Amino acid sequence: METITSAEPITIVATGGALFVAYLLIPPIWSFISYNLRGYKGDLTPAQALDLISTQNYVMIDIRSEKDKDRAGVPRLPSSAKNRMVAIPLEELPSKLRSLVRNTKKVEAEIAALKISYLKKISKSSNIVIMDSYCDSAKTVARTLASLGFNNCWVVADGFSGRKGWLQSRLGTDSYNFSLVEILSPSNVFPAAAKRFGTTSTKFLPGAE
């Protein structure tokens, strides 16, 4: 108290101004540092993801395998938001190719990211939420998309089946009915990548347009 009252007024003003500037600058600086450390925008709880997809212009990409969706189900979304959910399942590399690469999981995730980048409904300004079973592969996909210029990529924390994931959050699930899935030709989804990746199909989840 004595230090404050004995200081020159100009010193007090300067100190207060410096603290105010620091107050304004620290959050964006920390956000920038965090973004660079993560390599993508951030993590969302399942409840946050559901709210954003239901009320704002966010798109969720489910990268789980067909087997995982058959076993665990798919997120239940309001009818108005079902066209904001797209399935781009991770696919295993052919056995001959798997023996030639160092990190097959990373390569598979990066291929999925490239497919996502060619979706017609996705642009570099889109808000993209990636979900897998436990969020490990989703982080790689999000980082790869960010490196391609898609800077608004989020990951569902703990994925669909993790300890605090979608299932444990009790947000609602639907069964995955393969017969209801719309299959798009690869050339319609990612024309430049179709030749590179063959005839892999991109599927919309039940109820999606």
In a nutshell, what does this entry contain?
Keywords: Membrane, Transmembrane, Transmembrane helix. This protein is α/β, with parallel strands linked by helices.
CA gyration radius, whole angstroms: 22 Å
CATH level 4 superfamily of the largest domain: Rhodanese-like domain
At the fold tier of CATH, the topology name of the largest domain is Oxidized Rhodanese, domain 1
Order of helices and strands: HHEHEHEEHHEHEEEHHE
CATH class of the largest domain: Alpha Beta
Please state the structural category: alpha/beta
- CA(first)-CA(last) distance: 66 Å
CATH architecture of the largest domain: 3-Layer(aba) Sandwich
Walk across the major sheet and give the strand order.
1-6-5-2-4-9-8
Transmembrane segments: 12-33
InterPro entries: CAS_plant, Rhodanese-like_dom, Rhodanese-like_dom_sf
Keywords: Membrane, Transmembrane, Transmembrane helix
Organism: Gossypium klotzschianum
How does this model look, in words?
The chain has 209 residues and is α/β, with parallel strands linked by helices. The chain is 44% helix and 14% strand. It has helices at 2-6, 9-38, 46-55, 66-72, 95-98, 104-117, 136-147, 186-189, 191-197, and strands spanning 42-44, 58-62, 74-75, 85-87, 127-131, 153-156, 173-174, 182-184, 202-204. Helix 6 (104-117) packs across helix 7. The chain is globular, with a radius of gyration of 22 Å.
Secondary structure blueprint with pairings:
Blueprint (H helix, E strand, L loop, with lengths): L1 H5 L2 H30 L3 E3 L1 H10 L2 E5 L3 H7 L1 E2 L9 E3 L7 H4 L5 H14 L9 E5 L4 H12 L5 E4 L16 E2 L7 E3 L1 H4 L1 H7 L4 E3 L5
Parallel strand pairs: 1-6, 2-4, 2-5, 5-6
Antiparallel strand pairs: 3-7, 4-9, 8-9
